[in-house]
Amino acid sequence: MIETDLSKFNNSWYKPGAGSLKRIVWYLVNAAFLNSSFPVNGFKIFLLRCFGAKIGKNVTIKPHVNIKYPWRLIIGENVWIGESVWIDNLANVTIGDHVCISQGAFLLCGNHNYKKESFDLMIGEIQLEEGVWIGAKAIVCPGVKCHSHSVLAVGSVAVSDLQAFQIYQGNPAVQSRERVLTK
Asked: What is the pLDDT of residues 97-117, one digit of tens each?
């Protein structure tokens, strides 16, 4: 029987999209201003844009948010990103308008192939379309697209696409009911 052999792991093919110096400087800026109690929202957005993030108007980023690579991040308008959200964007993450990502949620663009003895890195983009709500402590896995106004309930894990105007819950998340909006 073949066993896992991490000495064979090789992700030299992966290119994070910026030079080493830029990644090091971002790591320090992220630690000091985003993944901290720093309260000034506008300055956080300014810093993200300086490092290549594309961010729309009226975006709120709460304290202790961790963003791996801002140059792989697009955020629309009127977006809320709650406390302790982690955007582990080894691949591109696109967040549409009017999206809410609640506290402690995790957008995970990388994983490992447990079927390979070398435990190869696998990455996939994440897209959150307009009106999506990712509940507190929920996880969106690599390659998942959350279609318009879908909801991922508290503590749930999205391993496949979420359909528009549907509410998903559980691990793995399954459709539980329709999302009906009222005035």
From this structure: 999 999 999 999 999 999 999
The number of distinct structural domains making up the chain is 1
CATH number at residue 123: 2.160.10.10
Q: Domain for residue 30, yes or no?
A: yes
| Residue 135 in tokens | 């509940």
**pLDDT of amino acid 42:** 96
26, with CB counted inside 10 A (0-12, 13-18, 19+), is: buried
Question: What is the C-alpha separation between 108 and 87, in angstroms, rounded?
Answer: 7
Does a structural domain hold residue 63? yes
Give a yes or no: residue 4 inside a domain.
no
- Long-range pairs for 149-157 at CB < 8 Å and ≥24 separation? 149/179, 149/181, 150/179, 151/179, 154/102
Share of the chain above pLDDT 70, in %: 100
